[in-house]
Amino acid sequence: MNLNSSFTNRLILLVLGAFTTAALHAQTSNQDKPCYKGMVVCAYPDAAQAGLSILKKGGNAIDAAVAVQFALAVTLPEAGNIGGGGFMVYRSAKGETNTLDFREKAPGKASADMYLDEAGNVIPDKSLYTHQAAGVPGSVDGMVEAHHKYGKLPWATLVQPAIELARNGFKVTRHLADDLNKSQADFKRLNPGKGYFLKDIPWQEGDLLVQEDLAKTLTLIRDKKRDGFYKGTVAGQLIAEMRTGNGLISQADLDKYHSVWRKPVIGKYKQYKVITMPPPSSGGIALLQLLHAVEKYPLSRWGHNRDSSVQLMVEAERRVYADRSKYLGDPDFYKVPADSLLRPTYMDARMQNFDWNTATPSSNIKPGSFAGYESDQTTHYSIVDRDGNAVSITTTLNGSFGCKIFVKGAGFLLNNEMDDFSAKPGTPNMFGLVGGKANSIQPGKRMLSSMTPTILEKDGKLFMVVGTPGGSTIITSVFQTILNVIEYGQDVQRAVASGRFHHQWLPDIVTAEIGALNNETRSILAKKGYIIKEGGTIGRVDAIVKAPQGYYMGGADPRGDDTKTGW
Q: Does this model's pTM top 0.85?
């Protein structure tokens, strides 16, 4: 299958940002000082401080995560949310592991052909910028469930920082001001009669953003937990919003929604144990496949982002994303062949037709087969507390500001996660990812995701907490960051800041940040047939590494307002 050139250009614009690697800068606090008592790394300074304040009050990593989640819903409206969903990977100080799936679900009225016209063609933007683009939100239920199982401090204490940020306002950064300005026309067009985020003059760095309706919603969540969102006033506002735009989410959908504890996907890379997210995230299985594919090769000797290293990683990515298109989906609806995909001999066989002398055309790569089988806007935060409990959470609205439609009176944005389903087999979504039956739309089903929150151990002890936003580039960004630390000996800050590249099977191009690949590497790969497109930035990785001496070091991605803070 070939993707047309206009879609290829759209993909490049989506996965690459507006700034070159040379222009990167970081927002940090105590960034280079050893922190023994805990650390928070997330996408906005005020949210990082909210999480650190909870740690200093005696809260654990889960408590801090709840505070950060709700604070990001205020300070990072393009991705932080209460109207979206996500995934959590948890490791206790004793080495116990768990994952929480609070991914959104398709409403009960959803159907497999809901985004197709009478001729069976996908209706442009219906799964992106309409009320029908929204899945049933999971973030609030997820935070309530995580706190109920592992939390320590009172719930109200954890939500209060977000309420204060919404009610009193916070100063917007240059990045947020730019994002708000870019979406002004969409906010006006899609939200008649609503004034959220609108301004007569352009937003400027340092402007105060106050969100009174969101503060009221957060107050109800503080006081009533789950019922403050899925029942009563806020639920009524959400259902009323659905009626205004022919949306599908009903009160029955809200009542039925519950996050799910799932068994982690666990694998090994050399002497490291990798604990990551199972389906409906594709990230965990894909990450372990990628790590196994490159494990036996001398990456450290070849060097960071050199031609042999890049070629090997691209060829592995090409095959893994092909598998993703066929075999991964919601395990509650589809039998995901996880054991087969993760079998070492399977990935070895997938790499057998890899030729060092020439690029493998993606048209020659199909999803693998095995015996017995029956048929990006996102944000991430990593937290470790003083006892060594660790949490890695990636959460999302899907596109930047979701579908850009607000719930009137409640002050929060709806997601457009329904685009992550396969609207039609073989038709790419907004990130260029294709899929089939495994990820078809069904009522109550969770859509496939690329989110890859991950925790690593070394010698039975906590080693690394990592994750990133970035749509289809999430998996490869986490993959490269792990290799940067383990194979190339980079400290965690350099590892998250280093230049990145990405390949996802279709379209058959390698996207790379400007400066990520030197002239010699690009020239060698081009002669072998690789098509390389350079642009801005890929992903915003936030990571923590525990040093052998026992202290924590953070890596806050300088591509955004990401901040690391600890004590």
A: yes
